[in-house]
């Protein structure tokens, strides 16, 4: 299997690529990091057009079986519509794996009918404590569709999707918003004050289309800054509150998050 890696958001270091390339060889895969992954333009891994071109190049290349997002950060929303408009039939035959800021493009791809979309670890995760296990988990899904890589509640008789809370909230009402009717929606967050999570959940749970999901599961909300004054509720309490207010079923917790234990959630 040949996997192409692009960075629609922020850049990665070459040491990350070297470590992941070696792990991929162990997993029976060949990983190619597009040179764009290492470019730096202000906050981004190259200018918008450069990042979009790299994504389209790999997605439309029949020599690659999958496209793997290099990392999160910020920037995917700036190129998503341009990218989606330029994808051909070959792009529909690939698997796409990422999370966090990659959610903008994953949502847009799913909205456009791409059927091999998944939330899951990215190459940048190799830098985390226990990160090699996360990368190998992602590779096991890309190469073998290993069920051991999946979030434990993923079931064959249900449909699923997973997003970062802030990213999902921001893409609602845009051309990227997918139809998640009857899906189990898994959400996670990182580095956001609890009041911001509360505000995002107001927006998410108020969306008429989101109210048609089968229910919401909450993954880990990590590195939460202190609120002043204290918000007085946990992230789970916040999500349960908005589920109750909106009539969306609360389904419990999910084993996803911005950490090395992040599991794979295939869309659909």
TrEMBL record:
InterPro entries: Carboxypeptidase_A_C_sf (IPR027461), Class_I_gatase-like (IPR029062), LdcA_N (IPR027478), Peptidase_S66_N (IPR040449), Peptidase_S66C (IPR040921), S66_fam (IPR003507). CDD domains: Peptidase_S66. It comes from the Bacteria. Residues 3-115 form the LD-carboxypeptidase N-terminal domain. Residues 164-268 form the LD-carboxypeptidase C-terminal domain. One of its GO terms (biological process) is proteolysis. GO terms for molecular function: carboxypeptidase activity; serine-type peptidase activity. Belongs to the peptidase S66 family. This is LD-carboxypeptidase. It comes from Allosphingosinicella humi. The lineage of its organism: Bacteria, Pseudomonadati, Pseudomonadota, Alphaproteobacteria, Sphingomonadales.
């Amino acid at each position: 299997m040949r996997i192409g890696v692009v960075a629609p958001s922020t850049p990665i270091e070459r040491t990350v690529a070297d470590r992941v390339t070696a792990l991929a060889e162990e997993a029976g895969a060949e990983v190619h990091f597009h040179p764009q992954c290492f470019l730096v333009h202000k906050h981004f891994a190259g200018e918008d057009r450069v990042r979009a071109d790299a994504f389209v190049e790999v997605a439309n290349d029949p020599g690659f079986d999958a496209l793997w997002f290099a990392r999160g950060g910020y920037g995917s929303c700036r190129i998503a519509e341009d990218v989606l408009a330029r994808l051909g039939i070959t792009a529909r035959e690939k698997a796409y794996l990422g999370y966090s800021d990659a959610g903008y493009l994953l949502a847009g791809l799913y909205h456009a009918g791409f059927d091999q979309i998944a939330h899951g670890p990215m190459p940048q995760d190799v830098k985390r404590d226990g990160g090699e296990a996360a990368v190998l988990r992602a590779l096991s899904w890309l190469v073998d569709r290993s069920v051991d890589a999946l979030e434990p509640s993923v079931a064959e008789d249900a449909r699923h999707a997973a997003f970062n809370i802030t990213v999902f909230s921001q893409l609602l009402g845009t051309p990227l918003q997918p139809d998640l009717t009857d899906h189990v929606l898994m959400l996670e967050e990182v580095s956001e004050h609890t009041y911001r999570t509360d505000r995002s959940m107001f927006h998410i749970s108020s969306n008429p289309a989101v109210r048609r999901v089968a229910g919401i599961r909450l993954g880990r909300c990590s590195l939460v800054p202190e609120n002043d004054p204290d918000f007085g509720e946990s992230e789970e309490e916040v999500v349960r509150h908005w589920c109750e207010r909106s009539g969306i079923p609360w389904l419990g917790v999910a084993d996803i998050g911005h950490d090395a234990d992040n599991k794979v959630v295939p869309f659909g």
